[in-house]
Write a structure and sequence with these properties.
Chain lengths: 112, 112
DNA sequence: AACACATATGAATAGAAATTCATATTTATA
DNA sequence: TATAAATATGAATTTCTATTCATATGTGTT
C-alpha cells in the first residue's frame, strides 16, 4: 500500500492511482477518516470511538500515513493522528455528487 | 463491487466510499480508464490495445459500469464503452496534485 | 434457422490485502 | 533504571478480489 517505494523502483506512473484507491478501499479506513474529520485523536481514542482493536488501527493508520492521507505528531506518550483534509474531502464530495447524479438512476435501470 | 444492491439492503451510507475506491483499486481498471479517456471503444479493441484477454476486460468493465464510471452502448454486434469523465478525471487530477504536494516530501522523510 | 462474431457469465483458483495475536518499541515517570 | 502506558511491528491466518477458462448469450448475416 505504500507506493513511494514502488515509484522509486521505476514502476509506471499509473500505478499511483490504483495504489491510492487501494489504500482507501476499506471500511475501517473510511471510518477512521470520518472520525478524524471531526477532530484529531490518538490511537486509543480511535480504538474507543470505533470499538476497534488497537493494532488493527495502527496498521490502518500506517498505510494511511504512508500516502499522506493522515498526519501524526507526538504528544507525550500519545501519537495524535489528524486528517489531511485537502485531498480526501474534495474526493469524497465528488463521490457524493456522483452517487446522486448517476447511481440512483442507474440503479433503477439495472433492476428492469 | 456493485454497491447499489448493498445500499438497498440498508447498509451504512459510508460503504459507498470504500466500494467506490475498491472498484478503482486495480491496475487493469486504471489502464481501461486511461484508454477510454482517449476515445470510446469496444471490448475487442480494448483487448487489442491493452493486450488483455477478453473476459478479463468484460469482468472489469462490468464493475466499472456498475458504479457508472463507464457507460456502454450497443452498435451492431459491438458494445462501445465510454468513460464518464465527469467524476473520474477530477479525482485523478486531485491525486496528481496530492502526489506532487505531499508524497515526494513525505517520501524523503520516511527514508531517514 | 444456421452460422459467425462479439461479449458476458459462472465457478474454480490464484493472488492480494486485512485481521489477529503475540511481542517489540517508544515515551514518560516514579 | 525499572515500570507502566501507548503504540508499532511481524508473521500466520482469514477474507476479499481478480483472474482464468470453459461455456452461454446476444447480435447481425447468409
Amino acid at each position: 500500500m505504500c507506493y513511494h517505494s514502488l515509484n522509486d523502483r521505476g514502476y509506471s506512473n499509473m500505478n499511483k492511482y490504483y495504489l491510492f484507491f487501494g489504500n482507501l478501499a476499506n471500511k475501517l479506513k473510511i471510518d477512521i477518516i470520518t472520525e478524524l474529520k471531526k477532530s484529531p485523536c490518538s490511537v486509543l481514542e480511535l480504538s474507543d470511538k470505533l470499538k476497534t482493536e488497537q493494532s488493527k488501527l495502527s496498521h490502518s493508520l500506517h498505510s494511511l500515513r504512508c500516502c499522506s492521507i493522515v498526519n501524526v505528531k507526538q504528544e507525550g506518550k500519545k501519537r495524535i493522528y489528524s486528517l489531511n483534509k485537502e485531498t480526501i474531502l474534495p474526493i469524497l464530495k465528488i463521490i457524493d455528487k456522483h452517487e446522486n447524479k448517476f447511481c440512483k438512476k442507474h440503479c433503477r435501470a439495472l433492476k428492469k
